[in-house]
Design goal:
alpha+beta; FomD barrel-like fold; 3 helices; SA1684; DUF402; Nucleoside triphosphate/diphosphate phosphatase; magnesium
Length: 176
């Protein structure tokens, strides 16, 4: 599997459980790349949806992926603070083409004051049935949602004070 190198620009590919592509982020700069953690930064990167529509991210972001946890975290730097968008997902893999993961629909949006809302529960239930998520996957996802909420409450990992700001400073070293 290997891992992406620091300073390398990579794509991020999100898939659905059935193997269909969900979304592609065109360019993210790797700020840390190990077998277990990838931290990246991007700003105004092109995102392509499964249906071919494209859009451009609005603000700088620091992305956090872990090989042992079934979630990834995007910290978005906005004028009024850092917002987090957390995807319940498979752990990442790196195959030299892109950093890849399976998106399992459930999302958590975290506000600068660390309050949060759970999103897309209805989409998760629909896809769980339509794509036949195995019971073991359902259990793993719900357990990892609990871990994620513990991280938020404990301000662990990307939710720690200064985590996103410090990695964003690193990202600025790689911008043209």
């Amino acid at each position: 599997m290997g891992f992406p190198m620091i300073g390398e620009k990579v794509q991020i590919h999100s898939y659905k459980h059935n193997g269909q592509i969900h979304r592609v982020w065109e360019e993210t700069v790797v700020l840390k790349g190990t077998q277990s953690i990838v931290i990246g930064g991007n700003d105004r990167t092109t995102v392509t949806e499964a249906d071919g529509r494209t859009w451009i991210t609005r603000e700088p972001a620091v992305c956090y992926f872990h090989a042992d946890y079934w979630f990834n975290i995007i910290g978005m730097l906005r004028e009024d603070g850092i917002y987090y968008y957390c995807n319940i997902s498979s752990p990442f893999i790196w195959d030299k083409e892109a950093l890849k993961y399976i998106d399992y629909d459930l999302d958590v949006k975290v506000f600068p004051d660390m309050t949060y809302i759970l999103l897309d529960e209805d989409e998760y239930e629909r896809h769980r049935k339509d794509m036949n998520y195995p019971k073991v996957i359902d259990h793993i996802l719900k357990k990892n949602l609990d871990y994620l909420l513990q991280w938020i409450h404990g301000r662990k990992g990307p939710f720690a004070p200064d985590f996103v700001d410090n990695w964003y400073e690193q990202y600025l070293l790689y911008r043209p």
